[in-house]
Amino acid sequence: MRALVKSRAERGLWLEDVPVPEIGINDVLIRVHRTGICGTDVHIYNWDEWAQQTIPVPMAIGHEFVGEIAAIGSNVNDFKVGDLVSGEGHVVCGRCRNCLAGRRHLCAATLGVGVNRPGAFAEYISLPMTNIWRHNPGMSEEIAAIFDPFGNAVHTALTFPVLGEDVLITGAGPIGLMTIPIVRHAGARHVVVTDLNPFRLELARSMGATLAIDPTKTPVAEAQKQLGMQEGFDVGLEMSGSRAGFVEMIENMCHGGKIAMLGIPAKPMEIDWRKVIFNMITIKGIYGREMYETWYKMSVLVDSGVDISPVITHRYSHKEFEKGFAAMMSGETGKVILDWTD
Ligand code: NAD
Ligand code: ZN
What we know:
- By secondary structure, the chain is α/β, with parallel strands linked by helices.
- It folds into 2 domains: about 1-145 and about 310-340, Alpha-Beta Complex (Quinone Oxidoreductase, Chain A, domain 1); about 150-285, NAD(P)-binding Rossmann-like Domain (Rossmann fold, 3-Layer(aba) Sandwich).
- It has 12 helices and 18 strands.
- The strands form 4 sheets. Strands 3, 5, 6, 9, 10, 17 and 18 form a 7-stranded mixed β-sheet that branches. A 6-stranded parallel β-sheet has the order 13-12-11-14-15-16, with helices on both faces. The protein has a 3-stranded antiparallel β-sheet with strand order 2-1-4, with no helix packed on it.
- Helix 7 (about 200-205) links the parallel strand 12 and strand 13 (about 210-215).
- Helix 5 (about 145-155) crosses helix 6 and helix 5 crosses helix 11.
- About 45% of the residues are buried.
- Bound molecules: nicotinamide-adenine-dinucleotide and zinc ion (ZN).
- Nicotinamide-adenine-dinucleotide binds near residues 172, 241 and 286.
Protein backbone atom coordinates (compact mmCIF):
# COMPACT_ATOMS: atom_id res chain seq x y z
CA MET A 1 0.00 0.00 0.00
CA ARG A 2 1.00 3.63 -0.36
CA ALA A 3 1.86 5.64 2.76
CA LEU A 4 3.38 9.01 3.50
CA VAL A 5 6.50 8.08 5.41
CA LYS A 6 9.12 9.99 7.37
CA SER A 7 11.73 7.62 6.05
CA ARG A 8 14.82 9.77 6.52
CA ALA A 9 15.96 11.92 9.43
CA GLU A 10 15.78 15.12 7.38
CA ARG A 11 13.23 17.66 6.10
CA GLY A 12 10.48 16.18 3.91
CA LEU A 13 8.07 13.26 3.57
CA TRP A 14 8.05 10.49 1.00
CA LEU A 15 5.16 8.58 -0.61
CA GLU A 16 6.31 4.95 -0.43
CA ASP A 17 5.10 1.40 -0.82
CA VAL A 18 4.92 -0.29 2.58
CA PRO A 19 3.21 -3.49 3.81
CA VAL A 20 -0.49 -3.30 4.80
CA PRO A 21 -0.50 -3.28 8.64
CA GLU A 22 -1.38 -6.52 10.39
CA ILE A 23 -4.25 -6.65 12.87
CA GLY A 24 -4.37 -8.38 16.25
CA ILE A 25 -7.53 -9.97 17.65
CA ASN A 26 -8.68 -6.68 19.22
CA ASP A 27 -7.82 -4.46 16.23
CA VAL A 28 -9.65 -2.99 13.29
CA LEU A 29 -8.17 -2.46 9.81
CA ILE A 30 -9.44 0.67 8.06
CA ARG A 31 -9.24 1.64 4.39
CA VAL A 32 -8.45 5.36 4.70
CA HIS A 33 -10.54 7.68 2.49
CA ARG A 34 -9.55 11.19 3.54
CA THR A 35 -7.05 12.72 5.93
CA GLY A 36 -6.48 16.17 7.42
CA ILE A 37 -3.05 17.77 7.70
CA CYS A 38 -2.33 18.92 11.27
CA GLY A 39 0.28 21.38 12.53
CA THR A 40 1.97 18.34 14.10
CA ASP A 41 2.45 16.84 10.62
CA VAL A 42 4.06 20.09 9.48
CA HIS A 43 6.48 19.92 12.43
CA ILE A 44 7.36 16.37 11.35
CA TYR A 45 7.72 17.44 7.71
CA ASN A 46 10.05 20.28 8.73
CA TRP A 47 12.00 17.96 11.04
CA ASP A 48 12.19 20.56 13.80
CA GLU A 49 13.75 19.96 17.21
CA TRP A 50 10.55 18.45 18.66
CA ALA A 51 10.17 16.06 15.69
CA GLN A 52 13.83 14.98 15.87
CA GLN A 53 13.42 14.12 19.54
CA THR A 54 10.04 12.39 19.11
CA ILE A 55 9.61 10.57 15.79
CA PRO A 56 11.27 7.19 15.23
CA VAL A 57 12.35 6.87 11.57
CA PRO A 58 10.91 5.30 9.44
CA MET A 59 7.31 6.12 10.44
CA ALA A 60 4.08 6.58 8.45
CA ILE A 61 2.65 9.79 9.89
CA GLY A 62 -0.82 11.42 10.17
CA HIS A 63 -3.67 11.05 12.63
CA GLU A 64 -6.70 12.93 11.27
CA PHE A 65 -8.70 10.58 9.06
CA VAL A 66 -11.94 8.97 8.00
CA GLY A 67 -12.24 5.58 6.35
CA GLU A 68 -14.17 2.39 5.98
CA ILE A 69 -13.59 -0.74 8.03
CA ALA A 70 -11.88 -3.35 5.82
CA ALA A 71 -11.30 -6.14 8.37
CA ILE A 72 -11.82 -6.83 12.08
CA GLY A 73 -9.95 -8.97 14.61
CA SER A 74 -11.60 -12.15 15.92
CA ASN A 75 -12.40 -10.48 19.25
CA VAL A 76 -14.18 -7.46 17.70
CA ASN A 77 -17.98 -7.54 17.92
CA ASP A 78 -19.09 -3.91 17.88
CA PHE A 79 -17.88 -2.99 14.41
CA LYS A 80 -18.38 -4.51 10.99
CA VAL A 81 -16.74 -4.30 7.59
CA GLY A 82 -18.02 -1.26 5.72
CA ASP A 83 -18.65 1.00 8.79
CA LEU A 84 -17.58 4.63 8.26
CA VAL A 85 -15.20 5.46 11.11
CA SER A 86 -12.54 7.81 12.40
CA GLY A 87 -9.90 7.04 14.99
CA GLU A 88 -9.02 8.66 18.29
CA GLY A 89 -5.38 9.67 17.84
CA HIS A 90 -4.32 8.88 21.40
CA VAL A 91 -3.87 5.19 22.19
CA VAL A 92 -4.05 4.84 25.98
CA CYS A 93 -2.63 2.08 28.17
CA GLY A 94 -5.93 0.91 29.64
CA ARG A 95 -4.22 -0.18 32.90
CA CYS A 96 -3.19 2.96 34.80
CA ARG A 97 -5.27 4.54 37.58
CA ASN A 98 -6.84 7.14 35.26
CA CYS A 99 -7.64 4.63 32.53
CA LEU A 100 -9.24 2.21 35.01
CA ALA A 101 -11.28 5.08 36.45
CA GLY A 102 -12.63 5.93 32.99
CA ARG A 103 -10.53 9.09 32.67
CA ARG A 104 -8.69 7.82 29.63
CA HIS A 105 -7.81 11.30 28.36
CA LEU A 106 -5.64 11.63 31.48
CA CYS A 107 -3.58 8.48 30.79
CA ALA A 108 0.10 9.29 31.32
CA ALA A 109 1.24 6.46 29.02
CA THR A 110 -0.54 7.70 25.88
CA LEU A 111 0.91 6.86 22.45
CA GLY A 112 0.23 9.18 19.51
CA VAL A 113 -1.00 7.77 16.18
CA GLY A 114 1.39 8.93 13.44
CA VAL A 115 3.81 10.10 16.14
CA ASN A 116 4.77 7.10 18.27
CA ARG A 117 3.01 4.41 16.17
CA PRO A 118 2.16 4.08 12.44
CA GLY A 119 -0.22 6.73 11.20
CA ALA A 120 -3.17 7.41 8.92
CA PHE A 121 -1.47 9.00 5.89
CA ALA A 122 -1.73 5.62 4.20
CA GLU A 123 -4.19 3.46 2.33
CA TYR A 124 -4.73 1.36 5.46
CA ILE A 125 -4.34 1.87 9.19
CA SER A 126 -4.73 -0.64 12.03
CA LEU A 127 -6.01 0.57 15.41
CA PRO A 128 -7.30 -1.05 18.62
CA MET A 129 -11.12 -1.29 18.57
CA THR A 130 -11.16 0.95 21.65
CA ASN A 131 -9.87 3.79 19.42
CA ILE A 132 -12.61 3.60 16.80
CA TRP A 133 -15.51 6.06 16.47
CA ARG A 134 -18.35 5.07 14.13
CA HIS A 135 -20.03 7.99 12.40
CA ASN A 136 -23.76 8.60 12.39
CA PRO A 137 -25.56 8.03 9.08
CA GLY A 138 -25.35 11.02 6.74
CA MET A 139 -22.03 12.30 8.09
CA SER A 140 -19.96 14.13 5.46
CA GLU A 141 -16.64 12.36 4.88
CA GLU A 142 -14.78 15.68 4.83
CA ILE A 143 -16.11 16.67 8.25
CA ALA A 144 -15.45 13.15 9.53
CA ALA A 145 -11.83 13.46 8.31
CA ILE A 146 -11.24 16.34 10.75
CA PHE A 147 -13.00 14.93 13.82
CA ASP A 148 -9.67 14.80 15.66
CA PRO A 149 -9.00 18.60 15.60
CA PHE A 150 -12.76 19.28 15.78
CA GLY A 151 -12.52 17.31 19.03
CA ASN A 152 -9.79 19.63 20.30
CA ALA A 153 -12.13 22.54 19.55
CA VAL A 154 -15.16 20.90 21.21
CA HIS A 155 -13.17 19.82 24.26
CA THR A 156 -11.82 23.34 24.76
CA ALA A 157 -15.00 25.24 23.87
CA LEU A 158 -17.22 23.21 26.24
CA THR A 159 -14.81 23.16 29.19
CA PHE A 160 -16.57 26.14 30.77
CA PRO A 161 -20.25 27.09 30.31
CA VAL A 162 -20.63 29.82 27.68
CA LEU A 163 -24.39 30.37 27.69
CA GLY A 164 -24.91 34.14 27.84
CA GLU A 165 -21.17 34.73 28.27
CA ASP A 166 -18.68 36.83 26.32
CA VAL A 167 -15.93 34.67 24.83
CA LEU A 168 -12.45 35.66 23.67
CA ILE A 169 -10.67 33.28 21.27
CA THR A 170 -6.98 34.06 20.70
CA GLY A 171 -5.72 32.43 17.48
CA ALA A 172 -7.86 31.70 14.39
CA GLY A 173 -5.95 28.67 13.16
CA PRO A 174 -8.12 25.71 12.12
CA ILE A 175 -8.90 24.79 15.73
CA GLY A 176 -9.65 28.34 16.88
CA LEU A 177 -11.92 28.76 13.84
CA MET A 178 -13.87 25.58 14.63
CA THR A 179 -14.56 26.77 18.19
CA ILE A 180 -16.54 29.75 16.87
CA PRO A 181 -19.67 27.87 15.67
CA ILE A 182 -19.50 25.64 18.77
CA VAL A 183 -19.62 28.49 21.30
CA ARG A 184 -22.26 30.21 19.17
CA HIS A 185 -24.38 27.05 19.27
CA ALA A 186 -23.78 26.79 23.03
CA GLY A 187 -25.23 30.26 23.52
CA ALA A 188 -22.32 32.70 23.83
CA ARG A 189 -23.13 36.41 23.42
CA HIS A 190 -20.07 38.18 22.00
CA VAL A 191 -17.41 36.00 20.36
CA VAL A 192 -14.26 38.04 19.74
CA VAL A 193 -11.46 36.35 17.79
CA THR A 194 -7.89 37.57 17.41
CA ASP A 195 -5.22 36.62 14.88
CA LEU A 196 -2.45 38.41 12.99
CA ASN A 197 -3.36 36.77 9.68
CA PRO A 198 -5.99 38.64 7.55
CA PHE A 199 -6.99 35.46 5.64
CA ARG A 200 -7.85 33.72 8.90
CA LEU A 201 -9.60 36.78 10.35
CA GLU A 202 -11.86 36.81 7.29
CA LEU A 203 -12.62 33.10 7.81
CA ALA A 204 -13.39 33.84 11.49
CA ARG A 205 -15.98 36.43 10.39
CA SER A 206 -17.57 33.98 7.98
CA MET A 207 -17.79 31.37 10.76
CA GLY A 208 -19.72 33.62 13.13
CA ALA A 209 -17.30 35.82 15.11
CA THR A 210 -18.90 39.01 16.47
CA LEU A 211 -15.57 40.73 15.83
CA ALA A 212 -12.37 39.33 14.34
CA ILE A 213 -9.41 41.61 14.97
CA ASP A 214 -5.66 41.91 14.61
CA PRO A 215 -4.68 42.87 18.18
CA THR A 216 -1.62 44.77 16.95
CA LYS A 217 -4.03 47.14 15.16
CA THR A 218 -7.16 46.95 17.34
CA PRO A 219 -6.33 46.03 20.94
CA VAL A 220 -8.83 43.68 22.57
CA ALA A 221 -9.60 46.42 25.13
CA GLU A 222 -10.73 48.60 22.22
CA ALA A 223 -12.98 45.78 20.93
CA GLN A 224 -14.55 45.57 24.40
CA LYS A 225 -15.39 49.28 24.21
CA GLN A 226 -16.89 48.89 20.72
CA LEU A 227 -19.16 46.14 22.03
CA GLY A 228 -20.15 48.12 25.12
CA MET A 229 -18.61 45.52 27.42
CA GLN A 230 -17.85 46.71 30.95
CA GLU A 231 -15.96 44.07 32.87
CA GLY A 232 -13.98 41.85 30.51
CA PHE A 233 -14.49 38.43 28.95
CA ASP A 234 -16.07 35.66 30.97
CA VAL A 235 -14.42 32.80 29.07
CA GLY A 236 -11.11 32.73 27.19
CA LEU A 237 -10.07 30.02 24.72
CA GLU A 238 -6.32 30.22 24.06
CA MET A 239 -5.72 28.77 20.60
CA SER A 240 -2.61 30.61 19.41
CA GLY A 241 0.19 29.10 21.48
CA SER A 242 1.72 32.59 21.47
CA ARG A 243 2.75 34.46 24.58
CA ALA A 244 1.41 37.73 23.15
CA GLY A 245 -2.01 36.12 22.60
CA PHE A 246 -2.10 34.72 26.13
CA VAL A 247 -0.94 37.97 27.74
CA GLU A 248 -3.63 39.90 25.83
CA MET A 249 -6.19 37.39 27.08
CA ILE A 250 -5.18 37.69 30.75
CA GLU A 251 -5.37 41.50 30.42
CA ASN A 252 -8.92 41.32 29.10
CA MET A 253 -10.62 38.76 31.35
CA CYS A 254 -13.28 39.73 33.88
CA HIS A 255 -12.62 39.08 37.57
CA GLY A 256 -13.34 35.39 38.06
CA GLY A 257 -12.88 34.72 34.33
CA LYS A 258 -12.09 31.22 33.08
CA ILE A 259 -9.45 30.29 30.51
CA ALA A 260 -9.18 26.97 28.67
CA MET A 261 -5.72 26.71 27.19
CA LEU A 262 -5.14 24.47 24.16
CA GLY A 263 -2.41 26.40 22.31
CA ILE A 264 1.05 24.98 22.96
CA PRO A 265 3.75 27.59 23.54
CA ALA A 266 7.02 26.78 21.78
CA LYS A 267 8.93 27.42 25.00
CA PRO A 268 8.32 28.31 28.67
CA MET A 269 6.66 31.72 28.91
CA GLU A 270 6.42 34.45 31.49
CA ILE A 271 3.16 36.16 32.41
CA ASP A 272 2.12 38.57 35.18
CA TRP A 273 0.82 36.00 37.68
CA ARG A 274 -0.42 38.83 39.92
CA LYS A 275 -3.22 39.40 37.39
CA VAL A 276 -4.22 35.74 37.64
CA ILE A 277 -4.25 35.92 41.43
CA PHE A 278 -5.86 39.31 42.09
CA ASN A 279 -8.45 38.78 39.34
CA MET A 280 -9.04 35.19 40.51
CA ILE A 281 -8.72 33.73 37.03
CA THR A 282 -9.06 29.98 36.50
CA ILE A 283 -6.72 28.48 33.87
CA LYS A 284 -7.22 24.91 32.69
CA GLY A 285 -4.87 23.08 30.32
CA ILE A 286 -6.60 21.06 27.60
CA TYR A 287 -5.05 18.09 25.84
CA GLY A 288 -6.64 15.95 23.15
CA ARG A 289 -10.24 14.88 23.48
CA GLU A 290 -12.23 13.21 26.26
CA MET A 291 -12.75 9.55 25.42
CA TYR A 292 -15.45 9.42 24.35
CA GLU A 293 -17.62 12.19 25.69
CA THR A 294 -16.05 14.73 23.30
CA TRP A 295 -16.67 12.36 20.35
CA TYR A 296 -20.28 11.94 21.39
CA LYS A 297 -20.71 15.72 21.55
CA MET A 298 -19.07 16.14 18.12
CA SER A 299 -21.52 13.77 16.45
CA VAL A 300 -24.46 15.45 18.21
CA LEU A 301 -23.26 18.96 17.33
CA VAL A 302 -22.94 18.08 13.64
CA ASP A 303 -26.37 16.39 13.68
CA SER A 304 -27.76 19.52 15.35
CA GLY A 305 -26.60 21.70 12.48
CA VAL A 306 -23.28 23.08 13.74
CA ASP A 307 -21.44 23.81 10.50
CA ILE A 308 -17.65 23.71 10.57
CA SER A 309 -17.31 23.14 6.81
CA PRO A 310 -15.96 26.64 5.96
CA VAL A 311 -12.78 25.69 7.85
CA ILE A 312 -11.90 23.28 5.00
CA THR A 313 -10.24 25.51 2.41
CA HIS A 314 -7.96 23.18 0.41
CA ARG A 315 -8.35 19.67 -1.03
CA TYR A 316 -5.69 17.60 -2.82
CA SER A 317 -5.04 14.04 -3.88
CA HIS A 318 -2.54 12.32 -1.55
CA LYS A 319 -0.25 12.22 -4.61
CA GLU A 320 -0.13 16.04 -4.40
CA PHE A 321 0.75 16.04 -0.71
CA GLU A 322 3.61 18.48 -1.34
CA LYS A 323 1.04 21.07 -2.45
CA GLY A 324 -1.00 20.41 0.67
CA PHE A 325 1.99 20.90 2.97
CA ALA A 326 3.07 24.02 1.07
CA ALA A 327 -0.44 25.46 1.49
CA MET A 328 -0.32 24.72 5.24
CA MET A 329 3.07 26.39 5.55
CA SER A 330 1.81 29.50 3.70
CA GLY A 331 -0.66 30.19 6.53
CA GLU A 332 -3.30 31.07 3.92
CA THR A 333 -5.45 28.06 4.81
CA GLY A 334 -8.00 26.69 7.15
CA LYS A 335 -7.93 22.91 7.08
CA VAL A 336 -6.20 21.02 4.22
CA ILE A 337 -7.64 17.61 3.22
CA LEU A 338 -5.84 14.82 1.32
CA ASP A 339 -7.85 12.24 -0.65
CA TRP A 340 -6.58 8.63 -0.47
CA THR A 341 -9.19 7.04 -2.72
CA ASP A 342 -7.62 7.89 -6.07
P1 NAD B 1 -2.20 27.23 14.10
O1 NAD B 1 -0.76 27.37 14.37
O2 NAD B 1 -2.67 27.00 12.71
O3 NAD B 1 -2.99 28.48 14.68
C1 NAD B 1 -2.45 29.40 15.56
C2 NAD B 1 -2.92 30.77 15.11
O4 NAD B 1 -2.53 31.74 16.10
C3 NAD B 1 -2.31 31.23 13.77
O5 NAD B 1 -3.34 31.53 12.84
C4 NAD B 1 -1.49 32.46 14.16
O6 NAD B 1 -1.50 33.45 13.15
C5 NAD B 1 -2.21 32.92 15.42
N1 NAD B 1 -1.43 33.82 16.27
C6 NAD B 1 -0.08 33.92 16.42
N2 NAD B 1 0.23 34.89 17.30
C7 NAD B 1 -0.94 35.43 17.73
C8 NAD B 1 -1.28 36.46 18.64
N3 NAD B 1 -0.34 37.16 19.27
N4 NAD B 1 -2.59 36.74 18.84
C9 NAD B 1 -3.55 36.03 18.20
N5 NAD B 1 -3.29 35.04 17.31
C10 NAD B 1 -1.99 34.75 17.08
O7 NAD B 1 -2.68 26.03 15.03
P2 NAD B 1 -4.02 25.14 15.18
O8 NAD B 1 -3.83 23.88 14.41
O9 NAD B 1 -5.26 25.92 14.96
O10 NAD B 1 -3.85 24.81 16.72
C11 NAD B 1 -3.97 25.84 17.67
C12 NAD B 1 -3.00 25.63 18.82
O11 NAD B 1 -3.36 24.45 19.55
C13 NAD B 1 -1.53 25.43 18.40
O12 NAD B 1 -0.70 26.07 19.36
C14 NAD B 1 -1.36 23.92 18.48
O13 NAD B 1 -0.01 23.55 18.71
C15 NAD B 1 -2.24 23.59 19.66
N6 NAD B 1 -2.78 22.23 19.72
C16 NAD B 1 -2.94 21.71 20.96
C17 NAD B 1 -3.52 20.47 21.13
C18 NAD B 1 -3.74 19.94 22.49
O14 NAD B 1 -4.19 18.80 22.62
N7 NAD B 1 -3.47 20.73 23.54
C19 NAD B 1 -3.94 19.74 20.00
C20 NAD B 1 -3.79 20.31 18.73
C21 NAD B 1 -3.21 21.56 18.60
ZN1 ZN C 1 -3.48 4.68 31.03
